[in-house]
C-alpha cells in the first residue's frame, strides 16, 4: 500500500533535500557494518575486561564470538514513575537472550530527569540539554564495541529522543525500543487541571493541590495524559522501533513482561549473524520519519517533537523542517481525543483500539507509508493489531478492531475530530514559531491584543497574583530560548493564563521558550526563532504593541510600522542568575553551542 499523493510529495522533497547528508550517513554505517561481528576486533585483554563478570557459560559464548551479544541501554532510576519498572528488565532480557542462544549485558545507563518534577524550577533549564547528553551517554556505553544489537529502555520526554539519536548514530546496529507503559488511570486529568486553576486563583491551598496531584500521579508508569512521554511511545511504534502493540501496556503485567522478552529475542534475530539483518540506520528512512510526523498530527501529540523529530532525523542524515511538519498537519486529520485534546487518558485510548486501530485507519487513506522496514519485518500492516497474552505466556496478536470501542476517544478516518492535525508553523515579522491548536477552541485561533512583555516566567506569575493582568493581552515571555537558559518548558504559565481566559479575556502567549506536551486550551506561539538572546525580533517588542496571532493563516506579527520597529534597539536581559546552581554551570558549553529551535535545538546536530 502506497502513501497518497500529498504525503508522497512531501516525503519526496525531504528525500531530495537530504540526499547529500543521507548518502554520506549510509556510507558510514555501511562501512561500520562491514567490519563484521565487532568483538572479533578486540584484543584479548580488551575482551577479558568486557566479559569479566559474566557467568562461565556467557564467557564461553562471547569468547567464541559465535553468538549475539545484546547491549542494554537503560534509563532506570527508582525516583521517576515511568522508569522505575525498568529495574527488573535486565534480568528478563538476559533470560530471554539465553533462551534465544545469545547473551545480554547492560552496556550503560543514561540520566532520566522528569519535567514534571522540575517545572518552574531551576532544574528545568537542564531538561532540553539532557536529550543530547543522553545520546552522548548512550554512545559511551556502546563505544566498548561489544554488541551485535541494542535494546533501549526509556520512556519520557527527552529520554526517548536522546536514545533515538544514539540508536541512529550507531545505525549499523539493530535497535529495539522497549517501553514500560503507562500507569493505571487515577484522578481524571480535567479534574487535576481544575484544581490547578483553583490553586492559581487562591481558592484552594497547597494541601488540596498536592492531594489532587498525588491521586493523578500515583504509581509505576508514565503519566496518563498525552504529553511528550506518551507521544514518544506512539512515535516509536509508528516508526517501527517498537514491537507491534508494545506502547501502552501497563507495567507489572504478564503481557508487559512477555513483550519485553519478545523484544530481546527479536533484537538477536535481526543481527548481522542471522538472515534478517536490520540495522537501525537503514531501517529508519525518510518514510519512517514522515510516518512519525503523521502519527503526531493524527493524535494531537506534543509540540516538543517539533524539536525532537528534527534532531532525530538529523542523526540519520535526514533534513526535516518545520515547513514539512506544518504542511503534513494540513493534510492529516485528527483521529484521537486524549487529554489535553479531550477528557480521556492513554489507557482509554488503548482500550478504544489504540495504536493498532489508529494505524489501520491511517493506512486506509494512504496517510502512512506502509512500505517501510520495522524491527518486526516489512510493512506497517503488521502493526494493525491488538496484543494479548497467549495461554503459553507469549504474545498473541489479533487483528485491530474494525470499529472503535469508544468513538469519542478514537475515531475513523472518514469521521475525524478535525480535518487537520492542528500543529502549525507561524511566520511573520517576529520570526518563526509553532503552535498547537488541537485543544484550542476555534474562536481563539485568532487573537489580536496588546503585548505585555516579560523577561522571565516568574514575572508573569507575579503580575497575575498582583491582579495586573485582568484584561485582553498577549504575553510575550522572552529570553527563554536554548542559548539564553536552555529553553525550559513554561507549563506553569498554563493555569494563570487559563484562569484569565475563562474569565472572558482574550489571552495568548508568544515566547522563544517551550510549552509542555500538555499545553492545551490557551493559544501559544512557541519556539520563536531567532530567540531574543540572538537579537531576534521578539527582543524589540514593547508593552502595548499590538500583536496578531493568527493560527488560521499561520502568521504571528507585531502591528507596528516597519520602519519604526526595525529602528528599535534590541533589548537585553541579565541572565547571570541562570548560569549557576542546580548544575547549570556544567552546561555553559551547551548554551554556547546549541543550535536554533527550528534546527532542532541540538548541541551535537546543529
UniProtKB/TrEMBL annotation:
Pathway annotation: Carbohydrate metabolism; Entner-Doudoroff pathway
EC number, as in UniProt: 4.2.1.12
UniProt cross-references to Pfam families, sorted A to Z: ILV_EDD_C (PF24877), ILVD_EDD_N (PF00920)
Every Dihydroxy-acid/6-phosphogluconate dehydratase N-terminal domain range: 70-381
Gene Ontology molecular-function annotations: phosphogluconate dehydratase activity
Catalysed transformations (reactions): 6-phospho-D-gluconate = 2-dehydro-3-deoxy-6-phospho-D-gluconate + H2O
Cofactors required: [4Fe-4S] cluster
Catalytic class of the enzyme: lyase
Boundaries of every Dihydroxy-acid/6-phosphogluconate dehydratase C-terminal domain copy: 408-601
Key words, A-Z: 4Fe-4S, Carbohydrate metabolism, Gluconate utilization, Iron, Iron-sulfur, Lyase, Metal-binding
Binding residues annotated for [4Fe-4S] cluster, in chain numbering: 156, 223
Cofactor binding remark: Binds 1 [4Fe-4S] cluster.
Highest taxon, organism lineage: Bacteria
Xref: HAMAP family: Edd (MF_02094)
Family to which the UniProt record says this protein belongs: Belongs to the IlvD/Edd family.
Entry function: Catalyzes the dehydration of 6-phospho-D-gluconate to 2-dehydro-3-deoxy-6-phospho-D-gluconate.
PANTHER family: D-XYLONATE DEHYDRATASE, PHOSPHOGLUCONATE DEHYDRATASE
Name used for this protein in its record: Phosphogluconate dehydratase
Organism of provenance: Rhizobium aquaticum
Gene designation: edd
Amino acid at each position: 500500500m502506497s502513501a497518497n499523493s500529498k504525503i508522497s510529495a512531501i516525503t519526496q522533497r525531504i528525500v531530495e533535500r537530504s540526499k547529500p547528508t543521507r548518502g554520506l550517513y549510509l556510507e558510514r554505517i555501511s562501512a561500520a557494518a562491514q567490519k563484521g561481528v565487532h568483538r572479533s576486533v578486540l584484543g584479548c585483554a580488551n575482551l577479558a575486561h568486557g566479559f569479566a563478570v559474566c557467568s562461565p557459560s556467557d564467557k564461553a559464548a562471547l569468547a567464541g564470538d559465535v553468538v549475539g551479544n545484546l547491549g542494554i541501554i537503560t534509563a532506570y532510576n527508582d525516583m521517576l514513575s515511568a522508569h522505575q519498572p525498568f529495574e527488573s528488565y535486565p534480568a528478563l532480557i538476559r533470560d530471554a537472550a539465553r533462551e534465544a542462544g545469545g547473551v545480554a549485558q547492560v552496556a550503560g545507563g543514561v540520566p532520566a530527569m522528569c519535567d514534571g518534577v522540575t517545572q518552574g524550577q531551576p532544574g528545568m533549564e537542564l531538561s532540553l540539554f539532557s536529550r543530547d547528553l543522553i545520546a552522548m551517554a548512550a554512545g559511551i556505553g556502546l563505544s566498548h564495541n561489544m554488541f551485535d544489537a541494542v535494546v533501549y529502555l526509556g520512556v519520557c520526554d527527552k529520554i526517548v529522543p536522546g536514545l533515538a539519536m544514539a540508536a541512529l548514530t550507531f545505525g549499523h546496529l539493530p535497535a529495539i525500543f522497549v517501553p514500560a507503559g503507562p500507569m493505571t488511570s487515577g484522578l481524571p486529568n480535567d479534574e487535576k487541571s481544575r484544581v490547578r486553576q483553583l490553586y492559581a486563583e487562591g481558592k484552594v491551598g497547597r494541601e488540596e493541590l498536592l492531594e489532587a496531584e498525588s491521586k493523578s500521579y500515583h504509581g509505576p508508569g508514565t503519566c496518563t495524559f498525552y504529553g511528550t512521554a506518551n507521544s514518544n511511545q506512539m512515535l516509536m511504534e509508528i516508526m517501527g522501533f517498537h514491537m507491534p502493540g508494545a506502547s501502552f501496556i501497563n507495567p507489572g503485567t504478564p503481557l508487559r513482561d512477555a513483550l519485553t522478552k519478545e523484544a530481546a529475542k527479536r533484537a538477536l534475530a535481526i543481527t548481522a549473524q542471522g538472515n534478517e539483518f536490520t540495522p537501525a540506520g537503514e531501517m529508519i528512512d525518510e518514510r519512517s520519519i514522515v510516518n512519525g510526523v503523521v502519527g503526531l498530527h493524527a493524535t494531537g501529540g506534543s509540540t516538543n517533537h517539533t524539536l525532537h523529530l528534527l534532531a532525530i532525523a538529523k542523526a540519520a542524515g535526514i533534513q526535516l523542517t518545520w515547513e514539512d511538519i506544518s504542511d503534513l498537519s494540513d493534510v492529516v486529520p485528527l483521529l484521537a481525543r486524549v487529554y489535553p485534546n479531550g477528557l480521556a487518558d492513554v489507557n482509554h485510548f488503548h482500550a478504544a483500539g489504540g495504536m493498532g486501530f489508529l494505524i489501520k485507519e491511517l493506512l486506509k487513506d494512504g496517510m502512512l507509508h506502509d512500505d517501510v522496514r520495522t524491527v518486526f519485518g516489512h510493512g506497517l500492516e503488521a502493526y494493525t493489531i491488538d496484543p494479548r497474552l497467549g495461554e503459553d505466556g507469549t504474545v498473541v496478536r489479533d487483528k485491530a478492531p474494525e470499529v472503535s470501542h469508544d468513538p469519542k476517544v478514537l475515531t475513523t478516518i472518514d469521521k475525524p475530530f478535525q480535518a487537520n492535525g492542528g500543529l502549525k508553523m507561524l511566520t511573520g515579522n517576529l520570526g518563526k514559531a509553532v503552535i498547537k491548536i488541537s485543544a484550542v477552541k476555534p474562536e481563539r485561533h485568532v487573537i489580536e491584543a496588546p503585548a505585555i512583555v516579560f523577561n522571565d516566567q516568574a514575572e508573569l506569575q507575579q503580575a497575575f497574583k498582583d491582579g495586573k493582568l485582568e484584561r485582553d493581552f498577549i504575553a510575550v515571555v522572552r529570553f527563554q530560548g536554548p542559548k539564553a537558559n536552555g529553553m525550559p518548558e513554561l507549563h506553569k504559565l498554563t493555569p494563570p493564563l487559563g484562569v484569565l481566559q475563562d474569565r472572558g479575556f482574550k489571552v495568548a502567549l508568544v515566547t522563544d521558550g517551550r510549552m509542555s506536551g500538555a499545553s492545551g486550551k490557551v493559544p501559544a506561539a512557541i519556539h520563536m526563532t531567532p530567540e531574543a538572546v540572538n537579537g531576534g525580533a521578539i527582543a524589540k517588542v514593547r508593552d502595548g504593541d499590538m500583536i496578531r496571532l493568527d493560527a488560521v493563516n499561520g502568521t504571528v506579527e507585531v502591528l507596528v510600522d516597519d520602519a519604526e520597529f526595525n529602528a528599535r534597539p534590541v533589548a537585553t536581559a541579565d541572565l547571570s542568575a541562570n548560569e549557576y546552581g542546580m548544575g547549570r554551570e556544567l552546561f555553559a558549553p551547551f548554551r554556547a553551542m546549541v543550535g536554533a529551535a527550528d534546527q532542532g535545538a541540538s548541541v551535537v546536530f546543529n
